[in-house]
Amino acid sequence: MHRTELDGVTVSWQDVSEDVHASLVFGVGTRDEGVDRIGLNHLVQLLVLDEISSEADQHTTFVDTAFTASGTPGEVAAHLAECCAVLADLPLDRLDEIAAQADPGDLVVSLGLELGDSCRDPWGSLLARRLGTAGAGVARWPAVPYAAFTADEVRAHAARFFHAGNAALGLSRAPWPGLEIPLPPGPRPDHDAVAARTAGWYHDEVVAPGIAVTAAAGPLAMLVLGVLRIRVNDALDEAGFDCWTNEWSTPVSASTLEIGLGVHYSGKGRTRDSALAAAILWEQLRGIATTPPTPDELDEAIDWMAAEDGIGLLPIEAKASLLSPSDEFGADDIAAARGLTPHDVSGAAASWLGSALVVVPTGTEVDLAGLARIGCPVGTFAPQGKVLKPSLWRKLRRGDDEHLVLADDAIHHVRDGAVHSTPFSDAILVEHGTEVLLGNVRHGCLTDVTAFGAAKTIGVRLPDRRWRITR
Questions:
Q1: Nearest of 454, 318, 439 to residue 23 by alpha carbon
Q2: How far apart (Å, rounded) are the C-alpha atoms in residues 131 and 414?
Q3: CA-CA distance, 345 to 388, in Å (whole number)?
Q4: Do strands 357-361 and 256-265 pair parallel, antiparallel, or not at all (unpaired)?
Q5: Does the structure show a pLDDT above 70 at 400?
Q6: Pick from 98, 264, 316, 82: which is nearest to 180 by CA?
Q7: Are 261 and 245 in contact (CB under 8 A)?
Q8: SS3 state at 50
């Protein structure tokens, strides 16, 4: 992979195709939006695509936002010039119309979260529990209704993040005469370091279990994740699960990543045994720390990470030149990984084991040896307020004393004498079909309150943009 600079933008290129493929990447993702601006990057993309004359792909992730195109050198150059010209002076005269037509569900697809129920994605839960409202911790929550965004905040967001100082370009050939990246200059924004929280296992509203560890960025993280994927998938198959796993690597500081796996079920019956699935995740991670991977496992892990073809590597290498660390492992990581030993990988896993975090679906009873149960802080006192009681069905199903108290400044979930309090400033309400879910963005937790008939009663008391409806 070659690198050069064009108009203040780092360009990574490699001859891999007769057609020209280009990926213009900006170092801004969901982690930079904050809980009350989720979706801004996607909206900026839609505004750009509305103005340009050619069709193009686009995506936004936890850490980046990209525009891609392919064609002849002239077509690609014209497309990039159009994108840059629009970003340099973003037209907002059709903002209301585009925002009204937008489908925030496209953002869920782009982020790679659980399609049918993104709030219950295990990786989103793990990040929210670990990071709260900081960085990628907000990715669990649905996008803000795009019509709520003002022209001023869209314009300010574009000016802060979509400029030459925060851009990189991946090309399938060397830059050619006539290719320009006419973006305005600007400083590369800082991505705040995030302090990870306590390790352990916890209950949450998730579709299936997941596991995360805080790892030093680099090739060892890549290999630990790769070996974990191999061993977990083999163990799940042997246990008869009908499921798949998503592997994740999410930057949380200039030197650390959250790496891990989320399980997603596709079958029924025993294949939805979340206690067994959680035990497999935990035991296989511990196993790497005590039983070094075989050379074959290391080769398979490296081959898996190196599986992208030349065109697929373009955005990965562009991101690698822009973000440190990135959320994907590039050619330098893969090359360095080939020089590491099984004991290097085992030692890294052992050193990170103390940061392990496991989520299991609410109601799942697990026994994970060496991993303590954790939870949100609770008290025993609930102040006076409007009391919302659950349906008779929920009372009979759970058999406990449960109700909500809406006080002047907080929502209190009372269950068997334990009081979990959510200040209105930390609350978020998600209506997902017929379900109503109450979240605490600071704790990262989610509670199903459908049976309380509480959507409107709670929603009208929340700060602007915290009542979100998904379809």
A1: 318
A2: 25
A3: 52
A4: unpaired
A5: no
A6: 82
A7: yes
A8: helix
Range ranked top by mean pLDDT from 60-64, 223-227, 455-459: 223-227
Closest CA to 450 of 397, 404, 390, 396: 390
Q: Within 13 Å, how many C-alpha atoms sit on residue 280's CB side?
A: 28
Give me the pLDDT at residue 314, please.
84
pLDDT digit string (tens) for 154-213?
Answer: 999 999 999 999 999 999 999 999 999 999 999 999 876 676 678 999 999 999 999 999
* CA distances to 14, 15, 173, 179, 234 from 314, in Å: 8, 11, 10, 17, 31
| Residue the block writes with tokens 């209704």 | 145
Residue of 460, 447, 444, 443 lying closest to 413 (CA atoms): 447
Q: How far apart are CA 153 and CA 359, in angstroms?
A: 35
Global pTM value = 0.94
pLDDT, tens digit (0-9, with 9 covering 90-100), for 87-143: 999 999 999 999 999 988 888 888 888 877 899 999 999 999 999 999 999 999 999
Question: Hey, how many other C-beta atoms are within 10 angstroms of the C-beta on 267?
Answer: 11
Q: How far apart are the first and last CA of the chain?
A: 43
DSSP string, 244-257: EEEEEEEE-SSSEE
Q: In what order do the strands lie in the sheet with 445-448?
A: 445-448, 435-440, 427-432, 467-470
Token readout for 289 is 């720390």
Q: What is the pLDDT of residues 369-378, one digit of tens each?
A: 999 999 999 9
Q: Find all residues with CB under 8 Å of 216, minimum gap 6, and list them.
A: 255, 256, 257, 348, 352
Strands (E), 322-417: 357-361, 386-388, 402-406, 410-415
64-86 average pLDDT score: 94
